[in-house]
Amino acid sequence: MSTDTTVSPPRYRQVAEQLAKEIAEGTLPAASRIASERELAERFGISRMTARAAINILVRRGLLTRRSGARAYVARPKIRFDLSSPSGLYRQLEQAGIQPGARVILAEKLPCEALEPKICAALHLKDADEAYHIVRLRTADGEPIALEDSYFPVHLFPDLLDFRLAESIYGILKKYFGVTPAKAMQELEISLLDAEWAQIMGVPVDLPTLEIRRVAFTDQGVPFEFAHDIYRGDRIIFTARTAASLNAENAPQWQQALDRLQNGLA
What we know:
By secondary structure, the protein is of the alpha+beta class. The chain has two domains: 11-74, Arc Repressor Mutant, subunit A; 79-239, 3-Layer(aba) Sandwich (Chorismate lyase), CATH 3.40.1410.10. Helices cover 30% and strands 30% of the residues. The strands form three sheets. A six-stranded antiparallel beta sheet has the order 4-5-6-9-8-7. The protein has a two-stranded antiparallel ribbon with strand order 1-2. Strand 8 and strand 9 (223-232) form a beta hairpin. Helix 1 (11-25) packs across helix 3 and helix 2 crosses helix 3 (48-60). Residues 257-266 have low confidence and may be disordered.
């Protein structure tokens, strides 16, 4: 005698999975409004509370977004940003077929004494040196997705502020100054968007974000940028690539490097 111990998932999860399938197949296209709780209840033969639970699951998964209170819409596909690539956000958006854009919020030249010591140290600036401070709002197809707060040594890039900074700054550095980013040291931290930046971006306060503090280097190992970037966690998927596969032979070396890194950050 056999006993079937298979347990079906709760009804609200079944409904959520069906709606997720319709989103993936394009039956429910991006930015379209999904049926109301009442309409879903009638369609699937469930209560409105069960329909609400199904919608909430998809909101938490980022497949749906709420507007005007309880109304739910299909979220737009997230943008992929490769953190391990030397290419900047502008170039990666172009390669993905997305129109990149930027609005300059602040562009100024500051003496080293007006900067935080860690910025001067990271860029190897002396007391008499200066740096450009540039803050930009980055967009993808017109939608705000990131804030960039960057510093560049003046002696490396004379008259940088005379260029169109709404374009790719890395593109400007390569074309007019012969500088191409070769590598970077980055520090990542999950945080919530504060009121000031939320107002600039036109998004809700406490939106999940990924903060990236970066020092970028030329192929000669010269630091040319110190940056503090804030990316919207609800619109971007962050990816990274490893330089070597982890196998039995190199596992001890990887573990030793990880231990050193963790000890250094403790």
